[in-house]
Amino acid sequence: xxxxxxxxxxxxxxxxxxxxxxxxxxxxxxxxxxxxxxxxxxxxxxxxxxxxxxxxxxxxxxxxxxxxxxxxxxxxxxxxxxxxxxxxxxxxxxxxxxxxxxxxxxxxxxxxxxxxxxxxxxxxxxxxxxxxxxxxxxxxxxxxxxxxxxxxxxxxxxxxxxxxxxxxxxxxxxxxxxxxxxxxxxxxxxxxxxxxxxxxxxxxxxxxxxxxxxxxxxxxxxxxx
Length: 225
Hints:
alpha/beta, 5-stranded mixed beta sheet
């Protein structure tokens, strides 16, 4: 589904009217209004509470582009960070802004560094999937054979470091079959916990907080889920 700017603006306006600042309260109000009423009252209640086909169409339009939001955050976030992370005279050799397998080893490679960007909004709870992705990038950087500096750019370092220094079993982290095979083929039973690997290899990768460079991802509930 192609969504024009005008359609998107209209869809957002329809949803905003329906949500009315608090979706839970709006739904409770609709539920209360419907109880005890017959078919002849439903249409009027729906219109009164903005639960209309226009709102439904708006939600459908937003959903059609929602899958691209994380890609947009990743791509634009990297571009926004580049002026702040690159050194004077440093030359970009390759950059990968899209999602998935782009054929490039890293999000960024210059004549001086290789880097991955993780615009994850850490929430401090059970974040196993985010942790798995973070470790994959750290491992990929740590093991990469290059004399260039290596960077893993994140939104805040407290939660990533808590995980990397933590006691999660590596076999529970390495869910990617190819990554699991590569790791244990190289290291065997040398490492059992995430921290076992991290403390040995932490000096190979610079973990850097870029949240000051992209405050738009930290001032609200931004970042990638």
